[in-house]
Amino acid sequence: MKLAEALAERADATRRVEQLRARIVSSARHQEGETPAEDAAQLLAEVSEVLGSLEDLIRRINRTNAATDLGDEHGTLTDALARRDVLRLRHSVVTSAADAAAVTGERGYGRQLRSELMMLAALPVAELRGQADVLARDIREIDVRIQRTNWEVDLLD
How far is it, in rounded angstroms, from Cα 100 to Cα 38? Predict the structure, then answer.
C-alpha cells in the first residue's frame, strides 16, 4: 500500500470514529419502556475496533514519514511536514498583520470629519503582502513535493 492510500484510509477511519461517536451519544440514553434506535454497547465495541486499526495505521504512517528521505533540503518527510505546517502558520500571521495594518474605510479606520484623528498603518502593508505571496508559493512547492512522495513511497510495517 502506498503512503497516500494509508493517509486516505486514516481520514476515513477518523470520520468513521466521529460518526460512531455521534451515534453512541444519541443512543446512550432512552426513555423507560422504549428501545433505543441502536445498541450503544455494540457501537462502543465497533468504535474500539476502528480505533485499534486507526492506531496501527497512524504508527505505520509516522514510521514511514520518519524513514522517508526526500533527498533535498527538506530532509525526511516528517521534516517537510513540520516545515509546511510552520509555513502555513507564518503565512497566516503575515496575512493577518497585513490585513490589520491596511487602512480601509469599510473597517472603520477612516476619518469622517477632518477634526478626527487619522489612523495610520504601523506595518508596511505592501511588503507584508509580498512576503505572504512568497510564503504561499513556498507552501505550494513543499506541498507538491509531499504529495508526490506520498504516492511514490510504500507504507512501512
Answer: 50
> Same domain, yes or no, for 62 and 74?
no
| Residue from 98, 101, 86, 84 nearest 132 by CA | 98
Count of helices and strands (H, E) across the chain = 4, 0
Last residue of a domain, one of 67, 94, 125: 67
Q: Measuring CA to CA, how many Å separate 69 from each of 36, 103, 104, 154?
A: 51, 46, 47, 13
Torsion, CA 95, CA 100, CA 102, CA 107, rounded to 10: 130
Q: Find the domain containing 63 and state its range.
A: 1-67
Q: Are residues 111 and 133 in the same domain?
A: yes
The pTM assigned to this predicted structure is 0.80
Q: What is the pLDDT along the chain (157 residues), one digit of tens a residue?
A: 999 999 999 999 999 999 999 999 999 888 888 888 899 999 999 999 999 999 999 999 999 999 999 987 879 999 999 999 999 999 999 999 999 998 664 444 555 666 677 778 889 999 999 999 999 999 999 999 999 999 999 999 8
User: Could you identify the residue written with the cell 484623528?
Assistant: 117
Asked if 88 and 129 sit in the same domain, the reply is: yes
